[in-house]
Amino acid sequence: MTRITQTEAEARRVKRSDYTSCTVAFIDCKKPGSHLKQNYSIIGPGVTSSSEQVINLPEAHGFNIGAAAMPTGITNNLHIHFTAEVFMVYDGEYTFRWGSNGEHEMVGRPGDILSVPTWIFRGFTNTGAGEGWIFTTLGGDNTGGVIFHPDILREAADYGLYLSRNNVLIDTTRGDPTPGEGETLPPMSDAEVAKLRHYSPEEMRERLVSTAERDFRPAFIDRALDGCGAEIAPVIGHGISQNRDHAAKIRNPHGFSMEWLRVAPGQTVSPFTLDDKMVVIPRTDGLRARLNPEGDVTLDLGGWETFSIPAGITRAFVNTSDSPVEVLIIVSGDHQKRPRFAPQVLAAAAEKDLALDAQGYVAAAHLIPSYGLVAE
Q1: Cβ neighbours for 197, distance < 8 A, ≥ 6 positions apart
Q2: CA 255, 152, 42, 145: dihedral to nearest 10 degrees?
Q3: Residues 235-259: what's their mean pLDDT?
Q4: Percentage of the chain with pLDDT > 70?
Q5: Which is it for strands 55-57 and 38-43: parallel, antiparallel or unpaired?
Q6: What is the C-alpha to C-alpha distance for residues 304 and 203, in angstroms, rounded to an integer?
Q7: Cβ-contact 290, 336 below 8 angstroms
Q8: CB-side exposure of 74: number of CA atoms within 13 Å?
Q9: How many CB atoms lie within 10 A of CB 238?
């Protein structure tokens, strides 16, 4: 049985005070109107181009998690990703732009999640009051870097900035040698830009799950047990929900699933294990994680903290606050996840006439046959 110590668990917890920003992460870092961006790499390097970027948890997860903070009016300029990029707005208002010249726009507010397709230009501006905060999730362990809009690459050269072919920022004002011909990524031609995929505002709207659209329903086999009944609202792919009526709005492969977990005051998610790495990011204080079958390792997680749980570890969650706690859950892989609840939980659920069918979804126990034939 896989276990974790208190020290090991603490090492996988990234507190808000541990997030370390980098202001020279990208080639537009000196462009007026973009120079005050703060980039964070929390799990994995993301797509940073700077050796100065602090990575809190470099361990491979199958996805990267980062964040961006920007004062009002500051812009992250148009660029292309090769793997999935998902924006999770935790604070403020952001206007997202996409298209060959950023001609389309959509506003994201706290609780909104937007998945932008690969191989199209995208950027965003803080159009709200205050600094704002966006978490990002990128697919894969190696994201492949980014391609910036040709206008951004050309303007960056005026500030002595270049991007090498291996996605490293070259800053001649800090003593880096001016790159020679063929040593930098060339700007995309107009013809290449014209060939990029087109997404209409209506199509992109289908890739936004707003706060109001979240479909919270009881999620687990322990739903009828005293003090249980936590709910999930799917966002991307097949997550950990055991409710057969759950269906994520965003379904194309990302390399990870994403969903909201909502736990009422005093409510508990019973102990279960998972064969995949899972990351939780609470929106507010009040979530306690209990690890190992005995629950002898505990962490009281604060809002906006990032906690990575290894595969095979038993975990339970309880809301210790007086208000509902919403938690973003990200799990590696595009497959359906199969949480395995403790035997005593399954036995208690059976007394309430609840069991799991062969697909892993909750059903009336009296309807499920005892079927033992399997393919050889």
Answers
A1: 117, 119, 120
A2: 40
A3: 98
A4: 100
A5: parallel
A6: 30
A7: no
A8: 22
A9: 19
